[in-house]
Specification:
Layout (H helix, E strand, L loop, with lengths): L17 H23 L8 E4 L5 E4 L20 H4 L2
Antiparallel strand pairs: 1-2
């Protein structure tokens, strides 16, 4: 004779409700709508484009930013190396 084990109500794993399972999808949809709204209201009609210059550089033509509004990058790699600043 074998032992028969039956699963009682206390052995069931609770399942999430439909709302709990749908929540990530609803949040992703809301974030997508918010992103589209942000891009649509950015207020820039000319996104600009990049061109190669005869000197071999790349320049942004057009766009909503003036060159003075951008911070120049330092071209010295030592300036970005924390170990070089220690001395």
């Amino acid at each position: 004779m074998g032992v028969v084990v039956t699963a009682g109500p206390e052995s069931r794993v609770p399942r999430g409700s439909r709302a709990a399972r749908a929540l990530p999808l609803v949040l992703a949809a809301l974030l997508a709508v918010a992103a589209l709204g942000t891009v649509g209201s950015a207020g820039c009609d000319d996104p600009g484009y990049y061109v190669s210059t005869p000197e071999g550089d790349v320049a942004l033509v057009g766009g909503c930013l003036a060159p003075g509004e951008l911070d120049p990058l330092e071209t010295d790699p030592v300036a970005h190396d924390p170990m070089a600043r220690r001395g």
